[in-house]
Specification:
two-stranded antiparallel ribbon; about 325 residues; mainly alpha; 13 helices; single chain
Length: about 325
Amino acid sequence: MNKKKALSSGELYRKYGIVIIMIILFVASAVINHNFLKPQNLLNILKQISVVTIIACGETMLIVSGMIDLSAGFLCTTSACVSAGVLASTGHLSLALLVGIVIGCVCGWINGFLITYYKLQPFIATLAMTYVLKGIVQIYTNGQTIGGVNKARFLGHGSILGIPVPVLIMLLSVIVIAVLMKSTKFGTYIYAIGGNEQATIASGINTNRMKRLIFTLSGALTGLAGVVLMARLMAGMPSVGEGYEFDAITAVIVGGTSFLGGIGTVTGALIGSIIVGLINNILNLLHVSTQYQLIVKGLLIAIAVIIDIKTKENKKSK
C-alpha cells in the first residue's frame, strides 16, 4: 500500500507537481514584490531565462536519450564571442547568426562522434570539449570583450507585438523541439534510446547515428543561444556563459525529465526554467547572496533526482 502511495506521488509530481510549484512561487513573488505582476516585469523574467531555456531544449533531448552535455556553457560562450567577432568585422548579423549555429553543430557532432566511435562516456567527452572550448575562447578573444555589435540590438533588445525577440526565439525553440519529440520518428527514437537502448538496437535503429544527430541538434540550439546571449549583452564576453550548462540541466531535471533517461518533455524544461527564474527573482528580492543561491540550485537538482529515482524504483517493484 505504501509503495502504491509512493508511486502515485511520483506520478503526480511528473504530471502536476512542477505546475503547482510554479504557481506557488508565482504567488510568493507577487506577495513579496508589488511590481512583480506588471507585464514588463514578467516579460523581463522570461527574457532573463531565454538563453538558458534554449540550451535546455537541447539538454532535454540528450537527457531523455540517456546522455548529457557538460560543454554547453562554454559552447554558448564560444558561439557568442565568435559571432560577435564576425558581426564586428563584417557588419552582417545573418552571417554572425549562421556562424554561431554552425559552431554549435560542429562541436555537437564532435561530442557525438567521440561518444559513438570511441565509446567515451558523455560526461568525459563533453568535459574534454569544455576545456577545449575554454582555451579556444581565450585565444580568440585574448581575454578581452568583443564590442562593436550594435547591429545585434534588435535581436537582443527589440520586440515584436510587445514581446521581446529573445522570448520569441525561446518560445519558437520550445515549440519546434516539442513537436519534434512528440510527433516525429526522430522523437520516438530519442525516447526509445533512453528507455532501452539494447531493445532499440535490436529493432534495427542505428542508435550511434541517432546520438550524433541528437548532439548536433543540441549543439545548434546552444549555438543559437550564444548568438542571443551576445545580442542581449551587446558584446562577446569570454566567460559569461560559464555555468549555463548547469542552469539548463537544473531546469530540465526540475521540469520532470528523468535523469535515468526515457522520460521528459521540453515544455517541462520551460516550466523548470521559469521555476528557477522565479526562485532567483525571490532570492534577489530578499537580498540573498549568490553563494546561497547556488546552494538552492544544488538542492533543487538533488531533490528532483531523488524523486525520479524513487519513482522508478517503485515502478519496478510494483
